[in-house]
Amino acid sequence: MNKKLQEFCVGRGMEVFGSRARGVVNGYEVSVNELNVNQASNSGEYPYQFHFNFYATDDQKRDIRNTLDNAQIKRCNRIFTEYGLKIMLTDFTVGKLVERLPEIFNTVISAISSNGGLDSNYCPKCGKEFADNKCEISIDGFNMSIDRECRDSINAEIEAENKAFEEAPNNYLRGFAGAVVGGVAGVVVAIIINLMGYYAAIGSIVSIVVGTILYQKFGGKPTKMMIVIVVGTTFVFMMLSVVILYYVYAAIAVAETGVDMSTMEAFKIIMQDEEIRGDFYLDIIITVVITIIGVVADFAYMSRSTKRKSNV
User: Closest by alpha carbon to 109, among 174, 26, 24, 173?
Assistant: First the structure.
């Protein structure tokens, strides 16, 4: 955790462990999670995240939301969860953020308490008062206290979902059909982009993204095999797109010259030209490289799709 943020957390009586912190501030349990650059980039969220743990009814949450809307906290995103309120913050520097944190904490905790949000003496999941039933869980990057029965219920739900997922059919053919549609979309984009004067290999990224989404939409189960099928299909279609492009160029050449020959014959002739043949192989190499880059760029999404929940 950043040193300045750590000093702030310790100063509020929180326990710091790695990139996380947890403690009771003004009667409410608060969890802190500092994302690294890659995590923040992949999730599209602000890197400095604070979870205020409390139980509130839907009406109370609406009132809390209205109060915070009026407060107009800058460079802040927020979302209600099953366990309270998640606040995501950023600023020009960590120092600037830490300077704002005392006021932000006071504003958020005041909004929660004044609108009936239960404090750290109550389970944020069910609202029951803690007795000897209190335990700690780690969920969505935050550590928090929760009722033991709620923890067991959550874990039972997760286990049931994982079992249902394991027993569900893989539907490889349906998933492959989705990957093929993604591949076709990539080819179309590649041809259009190339005719506009840009590298056609950009279509590989389209193919991977669309193929991954449609693989699941068509009924394919998001397993590691999905990654293999989508990536393999993308490679095949992107290689095909290069061949199609040069075939299109051959057709254009025949149309412009008015020579009486088939497009296939023209394709064979232009491929005998050393310079054109060199460009062809260069396009193949560039397509392979950009496809690999696309796989890496989309890997976080594909990994999230295939990752199953574990017990809290």
Answer: 26
